[in-house]
Design brief:
alpha/beta; Alpha-Beta Plaits; four-stranded antiparallel beta sheet; binds zinc ion
């Protein structure tokens, strides 16, 4: 039986801060919520963690601290709130340290068990190896899973960002559901028979492990850089418009949106790239959290993609299906116009390279008041259930629309329209 999870950040509207160790180069500080902070947050790529009683908590590197001070913001050291209560757990657990959420090892075990239980429908495939030598695991669900059949393929990705634990669970549960329902549900059987469904629940196993064992808010992978700086933001490391400007990603290794020294510099993004170019993928969802959005390309510009109308109409169909389950709203929008500009993200590259509809789903909650990166254990199933019909519908759509054409359009990097600066509630997701 799994232990209860430690994390329940919101109780009756009051934040109870989880207790975690920081990294030596990152300090948890708070500054007053203000327009100056909103402006600085965007310009400096700050890692905002939470807003509590008019103060915004930030995971700040030494250079962030210098820049905050230069902005004249009043900085309070809040590190004591995050002091570790006990030594970090060993990487070999005698129980699940994160409750119903999967550690990497638990995920590997559960995927292997599915292959054993459903040998005619499931294969666990290693699509690459992380920096710390963890196999990056995919679950392939199809009839004849040991064969490369000439069927449309659909890809579901989770956990580019280490701290977004719910994004592991939704694609994993989807794979398990397909296998469990194959024998009894003709609609599921048709999808599995006619498509190859690929599920990579944990693109960033090293970062996830670090988030579990050491620092809950870790976002990037665990690339070691000079001066003790770690990590590349994997969702800024893909090859479309990579590094086209410094607004949506950063050249600074200390930044939480550091894009790496080159596109596809990281083994984790290369693994996803190589999988996509090796198959006839016709649709993709990359799960993140949080904010209840379904985002489509482009993210690097506010200008529309050539296939904007398809991306929007199909995306709206998916969000309608999601809303119908629990009544929870997910807003469908172009990424660059809705959230904040990014460059080098998964969906821009996948759409540009293949022409397939490629969506980022930002899972619940809606905002930091709902728990931010934390979801309670009992939230996992409702969140999965409301995403399930959209995932099924996307596979169905890909079967009906095989062989998308790459989008040849390469719009200018930026429209003339200036984005409204987001408020302090905007946290990198
Ligand atoms: Zn994310």
């Amino acid at each position: 039986m799994k232990r209860a999870i430690l994390l329940l950040p919101v109780l009756a509207g009051v934040f109870v801060l989880p207790v975690f160790g920081g990294t030596p180069d990152v300090k948890i500080v708070s500054v007053p919520r203000s327009a100056a902070l909103a402006e600085a947050a965007v310009r400096l790529d700050l890692d905002l963690l939470a807003e509590i009683e008019g103060r915004v908590l930030i995971a700040a590197s030494p250079s962030d601290l210098r820049k905050l001070a230069e902005c004249g913001l009043q900085i309070v050291d809040e590190s004591v709130l995050f002091a570790p209560s006990s030594p970090p757990a060993s990487s070999v657990y005698s129980f699940s340290p994160i409750g119903a959420y999967h550690t990497y090892r638990e995920l590997a075990d559960d995927l292997a068990a599915l292959q054993i239980q459903y040998p005619d429908l499931a294969r666990v495939v290693t699509i690459g190896t992380s920096l710390e030598n963890r196999p990056i695991l995919a679950l392939k669900v199809s009839d004849n899973p040991g064969l490369d059949e000439d069927e449309p393929a659909v890809l579901f990705l989770g956990c580019h960002h280490a701290r977004e634990w719910i994004s592991v669970e939704v694609p994993f549960l989807f794979g398990r559901r397909l296998l469990e329902q194959y024998a009894s549900d003709p609609a599921v059987r048709r999808l599995v028979d006619e498509a190859e469904i690929w599920i990579v629940p944990m693109v960033n196993p090293d970062g996830h492990d670090y988030s579990v064992r050491v620092y809950r808010y870790w976002r990037k992978n665990r690339r070691a850089g000079e001066g003790g700086l770690f990590g590349v933001d994997l969702n800024r490391n893909y090859g479309k418009a990579w590094g086209c400007d410094d607004e949506g990603s950063s050249p600074d290794p200390a930044s939480d949106v550091y894009r790496g020294p080159a596109s596809f510099s990281e083994p984790e993004t290369r693994a996803v790239r190589d999988l996509i170019v090796s198959r006839r993928f016709g649709a993709l969802i990359s799960f993140h959290s949080y904010s209840q959005l379904l985002l489509y390309p482009w993210g690097y510009t506010t200008l529309p993609a050539l296939q904007e109308s398809l991306l929007k109409s199909l995306g709206t169909r998916l969000t309608d299906l999601m809303r119908a389950v629990n009544g929870r709203d997910y807003v469908c929008a172009q990424a660059g116009a809705a959230l904040y500009l990014t460059n080098g993200d998964t969906t821009d590259w996948a759409y540009a390279a293949t022409g397939m509809p490629a969506y980022t789903i930002e899972l619940p909650p809606l905002d930091i008041l709902g728990g931010g990166f934390f979801n309670r254990e009992e939230d996992i199933d409702p969140i999965f259930q409301e995403n399930l019909p959209a995932m099924l519908a996307l596979v169905d759509w890909a079967i009906a629309h095989p062989d998308p054409e790459p989008d040849p359009a390469d719009p200018p990097r930026r429209s003339g329209r200036k984005k409204n600066p987001p408020g302090p509630g905007i946290i990198r997701r």
